[in-house]
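Troubleshooting entry. Yesterday's outputs looked truncated, so today I'm pasting the complete records for two proteins to confirm everything comes through intact. If either block looks cut off, that's the bug. Protein one:
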Amino acid sequence: MGALLTRRREYAKSRPYDAEVEYITFSGTQYITIPICPNDGTDAIEFEFRRTTSTNQVRLCRTESDNRFNLYINGSGGAAYNYIKTNGTDNGWQALNNTYNKPGVVKHIWKVDYKNNRTWLDFDQYTITNSRSKAASTGRLQICQLYSSYTRFVGQIYHVRYWRDDVLIYDLVPVRHGGVGYLYDKLSGEMYGNDGTGNIGIGMDKYTDLSEFTELEYIENTTQVATSPYIDTGISSGAGTIDMSMTVKWGTIDSARRQLMGCNNGVFWGCDEGTYRTNAVDSEVVPSTTDFETVNMDTYTGTPSRKGPLALFRIFESASKANTTTTYICNCKLAMYKIWVNNALVRHFVPVQHPGGTKGMFDKVENKFYFSANSGSFTGA
């Protein structure tokens, strides 16, 4: 065992890939097998993903021999999951509230914790309530594998994590090797590739130093359609005491209220008919379409009924992130955005261009690049 662990550590140090990438892509024929047999008495799994098609009944994962331990989009477009029952022919399943949790085609983080009977979709938490007999699967975990006659997952995978007895045992990140995508386990140094047909595609290379990007004066959203780009900040509207500041020049100011930012059950702000609209804001600052102005939002301490991530350039309808409406999509140039939670600076966004050409915001706190969580792309200069 000691020799095996030594080899695994050496393998990890050698880095068996060319570069880490922001995501890998699945076109409907690829899947990855991870050598673990799930157990819903002890296990939890988390996916960071974005579908690129709205086809319902697609699986994020399943087990290879018994179709158990499934996370999937169900027939009504909602987030749902199976759990293991001792009767192998009768898997239980439970859907989240489909009114609010229809994943659509934007970026999400979804965690199902079977051991602790909880599940989260973008900060909104639910309790796993169905009565069930907990049991172990007889098959290995398969990511993006086909279930029955339905459709394989088509989209992007950003990160996969897996826990057993509350201990993280897989930390899978997207990488590229020879122009092909893989999942690399940061804990073991193992790399997992496609077990289906074709190749797993790759996104842009991942960079974590601001000096590797071209800094811009601003990024801009010029469209107000469902596919318009936006930034998912990864900060929950229920994170605590929230303060924000932005340097902005509006493209339009009108009564349609298409200038709001944030989560509509938490913090949101923008401008409407010549005034700033927010929970509390610098009222002396007049919105402008000709000049950049810095606006500071006063402290927000509300408790949202449904939690969702704060967004730049739009808010989410009912915190669902389905984003099928165009009612609240900003048309503006954004030059800076800061977020404080409980008086600690958690995001300091500045506009940049990735070496591959994609425009977005670089967070100087996390040293992380944030690009559109939707299919659209930002412009900027």
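Protein two, checking that the full record survives here as well:
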Amino acid sequence: MSGGLAPALAAHLELAETKALPGARIRYSVVNDGPVPIMLGEHYSLEHLSDRGWEGLPTLMFHLVGYYLPEGARHELDLRVPEGAHPGRYRIRKRLDADRDPRPGSEWLRGHKIEPIELTGAFDVVRAG
């Protein structure tokens, strides 16, 4: 990395579906758009849009696992829409951190403080029929 700027995470989230039924699974991808390798897990949070703004849903349990996402790579995961979800607008929130595992070629990352980022993606829960 040149130019004296500190490296930063750059990524985006792509949802395979923008509408889902309660209880459905939605595939999504995290794409690393920057030069910093990313470490991500299965954890995410869900929120529902109400009259008061975005409100968090109860926290789910996830497998404790880490995935390495190098520059330009994509990793597919899925989210589960809660069985009791009412129709309306929802969003996933996913936090990403820099991969700090010392890998060959990653020496340029040492000594830099790289802030985590959060990605979001919105979808609608609809009624069956």
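Both blocks look complete. Sanity check on protein two: The chain has a mean pLDDT of 91.
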